[in-house]
Backbone:
């Protein structure tokens, strides 16, 4: 059984009595792991990646404490290394501290107060240095994402713009009003697509940077808005759009994110229909019960190829070559759901349809 | 002999514009539009695009699902007697020199058009083609 929430300390010493004494004195305040040799110590380090402080005796039969620290530091850089040693070894200790292998040392025989003090200082240092390295990793990840983002966005914005320039050149070149109108119609749909792309990019920004606002959400209202938006289109495209909401209790969460999730999923369901299919059906089912909202959006449209299912939430991934989207939609959906501590699942069969199931907890 | 033309581009507006520009070229047999590279490669393989003379493919590079690169890679695995019937011209909106180099690095791509382009730029590339008997 793991002991939760206590700071994990590893103590390595070849003398069993020392280990037992150490554990007895400190086990109420810390999660103490003891190892009689370095092999056992490595086994603990491998198993517990959250060991924060390691004590090691300098004088052990196979290896000195300093040598062990030097060796383990290359593999496990984060735990704070504290040496236990008698005065006689002081030269080795100074050298080890100066070379950075050891954070500090505690002299033997130790008293509890020295050990506790060393642990507290070590943990503080651990937090700062591991936080820094986590932040650094996050930063370099953010940079490389920014590069990718800038590259993709410049393509996705310039693409339709260049098409528009081409359209304008063509229209200026002809006297035929009918042809100009044809070009304008194509340009209009191109401009609308570009506008959708920019709106999606704005959603992306809001989810990544925006603050969540916890409000009482009325799913019937969200559903009514969707019906207002889609009913006319559904009628003209001959799609049966069924909406069913069962909300028997209050539901609190961020409405903007919840709305974004539902809107995107429904809009995809409308977008990826089989054009010449008779019984087009889209169902939106929302059930709020037992402190969670279960949102199900299903369609009998063109479906997603199985090999793409694992990639559909990736930024700028497009699984459809006809009517391809902005590449933001499902990425935004997934980000929003993660922020809401929710979960999303997809089932899809090509040419049969797709069902997305989202679970969002009440806050 | 007149040349056949194929446009492969997922953007409807771009297909329309490219088609109108191509129609200014002398000696064209016809222009066929595809909005997907998958369908194009399928039709090339199945012989649906068989034409006795030369077919020039205007290939957009950035397309979803199968992009221009994937198209060319698959095209270059086809038997040489099929390949030799087609000449591919890449089309891109990219501003990135690395992209240009990568596109022109394929042996079956005979030229690159940066959108927006006009008929003169097309003719420049077409004039380079040595007609085979």
Residues:
């Amino acid at each position: 059984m793991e002991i939760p929430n206590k700071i994990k300390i590893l103590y390595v010493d070849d003398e069993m009595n020392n280990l037992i004494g150490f554990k007895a004195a400190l086990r109420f305040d810390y999660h103490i792991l003891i190892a009689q040799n370095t092999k056992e110590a490595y086994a603990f380090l491998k198993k517990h990646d959250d060991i924060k402080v390691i004590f090691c005796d300098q004088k052990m039969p196979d290896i000195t404490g300093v040598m062990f620290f030097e060796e383990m530091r290359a593999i496990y850089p984060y735990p704070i290394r504290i040496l236990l040693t008698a005065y006689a070894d002081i030269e080795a200790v100074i050298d080890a501290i100066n070379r950075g292998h050891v954070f500090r040392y505690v002299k033997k025989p130790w008293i509890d107060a020295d050990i506790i003090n060393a642990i507290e200082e070590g943990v503080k240092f651990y937090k700062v240095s591991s936080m820094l390295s986590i932040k650094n990793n996050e930063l370099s990840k953010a940079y490389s994402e920014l590069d990718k983002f800038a590259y993709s966005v410049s393509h996705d914005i310039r693409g339709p713009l260049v098409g528009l320039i081409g359209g304008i050149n063509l229209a200026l070149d002809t006297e035929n009003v009918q042809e100009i109108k044809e070009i304008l119609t194509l340009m209009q749909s191109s401009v609308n697509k570009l506008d959708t792309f920019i709106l999606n990019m704005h959603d992306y920004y809001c989810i990544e940077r925006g603050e969540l606002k916890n409000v009482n959400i009325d799913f019937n209202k969200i559903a009514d808005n969707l019906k207002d938006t889609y009913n006319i289109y559904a009628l003209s495209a001959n799609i049966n759009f069924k909406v069913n909401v069962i909300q028997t209790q209050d539901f609190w969460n961020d409405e903007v994110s919840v709305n974004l999730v539902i809107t995107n999923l429904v809009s995809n369901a409308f977008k990826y229909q089989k054009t010449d299919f008779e019984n087009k059906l889209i169902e939106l089912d929302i059930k709020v019960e037992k402190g969670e909202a279960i949102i199900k959006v299903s369609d009998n449209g063109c479906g997603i190829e199985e090999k793409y299912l694992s990639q559909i939430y990736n930024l700028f991934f497009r699984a459809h070559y006809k009517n391809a989207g902005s590449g933001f939609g499902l990425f935004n959906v997934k980000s929003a759901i993660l922020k809401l501590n929710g979960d999303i699942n997809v089932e899809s069969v090509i040419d049969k349809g797709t069902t997305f199931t989202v679970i969002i907890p009440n806050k | 002999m007149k040349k056949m033309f194929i446009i492969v581009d997922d953007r409807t507006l771009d297909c329309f514009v490219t088609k109108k520009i191509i129609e200014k070229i002398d000696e064209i047999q016809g222009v066929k539009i595809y909005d997907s590279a998958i369908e194009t490669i399928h039709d090339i393989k199945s012989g649906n695009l068989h034409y006795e003379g030369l077919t020039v493919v205007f290939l957009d590079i950035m397309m979803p699902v199968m992009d221009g690169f994937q198209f060319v890679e698959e095209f270059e695995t086809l038997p040489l007697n099929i390949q030799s019937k087609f000449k591919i011209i890449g089309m891109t909106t990219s501003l990135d020199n690395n992209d240009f180099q990568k596109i022109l690095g394929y042996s079956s791509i005979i030229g690159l058009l940066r959108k927006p382009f006009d008929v003169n730029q097309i003719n420049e590339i077409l004039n380079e083609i040595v007609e085979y008997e």
Observations:
- Chain B has one domain: 32-125.
- The two ends of chain B are 9 Å apart (CA to CA).
- The beta strands of chain B are 3-8, 28-34, 55-60, 86-92, 109-114.
